[in-house]
Predict the structure.
Amino acid sequence: MTDLLVRLFIKNSADVGDPAVRQQYGLLGSGVGIAVNVLLFAAKFFAGLITGSVAVTADAFNNLSDAGSSVVTLIGFRLSGQKPDKDHPFGHGRIEYISGLFVAMAILLMGFELARDAVSQILHPSAVDFSLLSAVILALSIAAKLFLCHFNRTLGSRINSVSMQATSADSMGDAIATSAVLAGSLIGRFFEINIDGWLGVCVALVILRAGWEAARDTITPLLGTTPDPELVHNIAETVLAHPEVIGIHDLVVHDYGPGRVMISLHAEVNANGDILPLHDAIDNIERELAAKFNCAAVIHMDPVECDDAKTNDMRQKVACLAAAIDPGITIHDFRMVTGPSHTNLIFDMVLPMDSRLSPKEARDSMEKAVSVLEGPCFAVITVDRPMV
């Protein structure tokens, strides 16, 4: 069914790197979600009316909130697909995250409202009538939600969409919640035990959890998060495959929304090399990154001394000292400036985020370690934090 819908409604569906194709996937997922959830809301609301079940009614409004979420997601995909303009040179891709945040807030609000009604049912219970029709509706709803779970997970995997993956997880949670409601109806019918209010609380908790997870998954990329390690590895591998590049550092993946990425990094080259061929090589690497990863790429060329044995030896000694302080510390942009009375060792030191040391403690320890080297030597250190 999923492949059939994709073939019918998405042109060039295999070209998921194209923002226009990605937008079509988002619109398809949202459209199917709206249609299915509106039908489920109408059916379950009717079932809730004829049975008087607060749990069934809660589940119905959960589907209505899902339909509203799909509407917001649809609008988000539409707006995020706008082309860059003078006020937004990197496009509007982050609108998808913002729309997801609005969806999360709506889900949380609905969860609190339903929890309140369910608690009221527990404190002041009322009889719940069993209906074969409502049981059939709930069973069909479970099947529909399992379909939406698979559908959104498949589409989300193809276009690497956090919001669609979250929708998939929400659909699975809905299927579990509806199963609980159906089980409660059957228990009430055959064992005459009224657990409707308690099941309503369970449904509300499932909704609140889905809202919290959706909020977390949309706030994280808005705040900025570390990129996919596999992407980082592939970028580094691509750059270092060129013989002109000795090493790389300060790699940053700038996320401006799904499918809108800019890469910046520093590439170390031989300071004694011919500047024009080196510059041409860097330009070629930028174009290769842009084509391979569908991104914008900017590379800063860092000249490093490779032919001076004394500098190379001192760089190695300093790197060993840094590793002794914290195995995760690395150094780059190493230079030696020798004077009549002492030698300055100038370098950047990258301190891991999970290091037990503060930047000041790491700098002080490094300065003390360098001071015992022959020279005498003084360290001029810039402490960095890793961006990947």
